[in-house]
Amino acid sequence: MSSNPTPNEILSELTQAAEKQWQALQNPAVPVIYVGHATCGRAAGSQETIDGFKDALEEKGLEAEIITVGCLGHCYAEPLVTIHYPGFPPLMYQKVGAGEARVLVNSFIQGGEDPCFEYLLGALEPNDTFPTLMDYPRYLYEKRVIMDQCGLIDPHSLDHYLAVGGYQSLAKVLEKGDKWVVEEIKSAHLRGRGGAGFPAGIKWDIARQAEKTPKVVICNGDEGDPGAYMDRTLMESNPHQVLEGLAIAALAIGASRAVLYIRAEYPLAVSTIEQAIAAAKECNLLGDRILGTDFSLEVSVFQGSGAFVCGEETALIQSIQGNRGMPRYRPPYPAVEGLDGLPTVINNVKTLSTVPAIVRKGSHWFRNIGTEKTPGTAIFSVVGDVEYAGLVEVPMGVSLEHLIFEVCGGIKDGKPFKAVQIGGPSGGCLPESELSTPIDFDSLRQAGAMMGSGGMVVMNDETCMVEVARYFIDFTQHESCGKCTFCRVGTRHLLEILKGLTKGEGSDDDIAELQTLGEEIIKGSLCSLGKTAPNPVLTTLRFFKDEYLAHYREHRCPALMCRDLIAYYIDLETCARGCDACVACCPTEAIFTTSNRKKAIDQEKCVKCGECVYACPPEYDAVRKVSPPEMVPDQGIKPLDKEEEENNE
Amino acid sequence: MSKDRMVTLTVDGLEISVPQGTKLLKACLDNGIYIPNLCYIDDMEHPPASCRLCLVEIEGRPDPLPSCSQKVEDGMVVHTETDAVRLLQKTAFRLLVSTNHGKCRLCMANKHCAMQQIAKFLHMPLRTKKLRYIPKDMPEVIEDHPCIVYEPNKCVLCGRCVYVCSRQNYDFALDFARRGFNTTISFFGSQEEGVGDYCRNCRACVDICPVGALNFKDERDAFLQDLQAKISA
Lengths: 649, 233
Description:
The complex is a heterodimer.
Chain A: H1 7-26, E1 32-36, H2 39-43, H3 46-60, E2 65-69, E3 81-84, E4 91-93, H4 98-109, E5 120-123, H5 137-140, H6 158-163, H7 168-176, H8 178-187, H9 200-209, E6 215-221, H10 230-237, H11 239-253, E7 255-263, H12 267-282, E8 298-304, H13 313-320, E9 344-348, H14 349-361, H15 363-367, E10 377-384, E11 390-395, H16 400-407, E12 417-422, E13 428-431, H17 441-446, E14 455-460, H18 465-479, H19 485-502, H20 508-524, H21 528-532, H22 535-543, H23 545-553, E15 567-570, H24 581-585, E16 591-593, E17 599-601, H25 611-615, E18 623-626, H26 640-648
Parallel strand pairs in A: 1-2, 6-7, 6-9, 7-8, 10-14
Antiparallel strand pairs in A: 1-3, 3-4, 4-5, 10-11, 12-13, 12-14, 15-18, 16-17
Helix pairs in contact in A: 3-4, 7-11, 7-14, 8-9, 8-11, 10-11, 10-12, 11-14, 18-19, 18-22, 19-20, 20-22
Chain B: E1 6-11, E2 14-19, H1 24-30, E3 55-58, E4 65-66, E5 77-79, H2 83-97, H3 114-122, E6 148-150, H4 160-168, E7 175-177, E8 184-186, H5 204-208, E9 214-216, H6 217-232
């Protein structure tokens, strides 16, 4: 009597075919060109790169395979191209435009003579000739758990994912059962990567034990922090990893329905995930009777319409139900009463993407990464004035200093570091003195910032902290759902005060109000958006109070950023006679020629756009920026028309 | 166990007994202990907890909590008048007042307005003093609806009108619109299709508004005319 095949047996049949194909790719007969073609790559021009390769190959009559892959997270080097030429290790090239693609085809792919060292970033494998990526700190210090395969496999190919061990965790859980996986995730101490850091295993357990059925799992892909894009990258670069995590979560709590909530601003993520769902269904990895078992899961994608607050889980549920995205009071928590009143587990994309690795390698392995209280890795999207911007995955517990200065290469152009904003718009700004803070949920919260979903903006000394606070409060005020009094009206008052300060208006009372009102908004607000919104104000007040005082007491912006408090003038000593560079760029024709053919700025016409600073040739560097505006020296020169006017009077 | 099992709790030193499952706010109000509130309606399963006025301190819980969303528990010890509670209540009230010009005499809700009652209770002025006056970025009076007028700066966004409308009508005729500070109540459909298709002029929203932000146009006109006559007399 033949018994039904086990999930593992069904899967290994699928995997065998995929592995064969994968092996062929590793030892290619013709050159293989991998082009990073996720949203960030496309923004940097990867489509032109692909076209460039195609054209050049066609012209030369050469044969090569072009494969589009996801994003490696190295945004500073996009478009990234990896060329695997038979006989060479796979070589990665940076900033490959259509022109560089042509050069690479002509010199390297045709005949394999010159591997174009000038564009080379490094080899993917150790070898005797080429430096490897591991020789760079940006790669060496990273610990890739979640982003392990991002940028290396084709996100549109289920076979690629299967070949690198995909869906084996799901098969394992199908054999070992829901209780086992909940215990495993609990013992791994996996904390939710959405921001709050709630233990995922405990959330699953609550939902698993809830009596009501059916149950629902939701993947929260409503990433809305300005400058954060790790969820998008994970969905675009390794969609099956998210789906596998989602299926395991569903199995763990006994859910029969899964929803991926993805914001509509991520069209590529939506289409990639939808395509992945279809492919997985076809191979019986999702849908009815998964891998021949009794477990069925209906998976759908819901596109959010771009409200930041919909990342909050109760608002997200309202949004899926077709209502206005407004959070509701918790408890009851969604794990007990969520979508349509059913027990619902909502996990972030990063949380779900971590699950397959934990199941595959075990909770013990996971606990050995990171810190005791927060094991695992953290993905940050490091942006701003940093040398190597992009997505960085590091073990939890490394210091901010290590992340910014060693992994990301420090501040651009050698300028001094001033502050780092961590945790998105409702995180906090930490100064140099706090750089030793280890990166984990609890330490960051103690320092006044928060982990958030991993947005990190690094700022140099040309950034005004009052303006930064104003920017983020403007964002949260705009994105507030307007439900509760503190968030709706309170943040607006903070914004008014901050707007005044950036114009040099304010008083000691205003500063006191910022502090007390900020603290009360945190205590009084209904949801996490309001409870964290004042963080940028409170942290900048704490660490950069002098800067606040300078704005209203001296009408001076120390970072020379707030437009109302600065002025530009031209230093006549260094200005070159007869040079017209600044005149041409000025949008308001505020720059005029003095009697000795040098230039000066009419302060009444100047709108302080700063274009002249960039236009002035570096060898003269004659445009000066000062604050307060009264510091512009009286050079005793006036534009001709004004002189005439006065003479006529 | 009978359905109406009673629960005994202590509020401000007073022992009260209420049926199990009662919301703490209702338990207090029914027993003569006033807690300021704007957005609470008795039969709601999940009260919005949005006005942030009905805060109380419950022993064993770290921060003040909205009493509308807490169910009574046996042996619960509640304080409604602590400094922490009053501080937040006063700030919430101050924030609500800061969008309004405080011309109560010109308002139809004068003398039976919930804000006036709360001001009296908290000993707070109805005009903003500590905070600056920030009106919403929209007209004082919105007359989109054929017979109902809406005054956004009086509105405290408690959402009671939205709730009663959705309960009374199959297709509810008004909802929240816009975001952030400029969140407002809007009769959607009023622009193009004619709100008459949805609204049955049932008065529910006008009657439930605690602050007189929604009124029937003819009634308001009559009131203002009357007032004008009184002033000139």
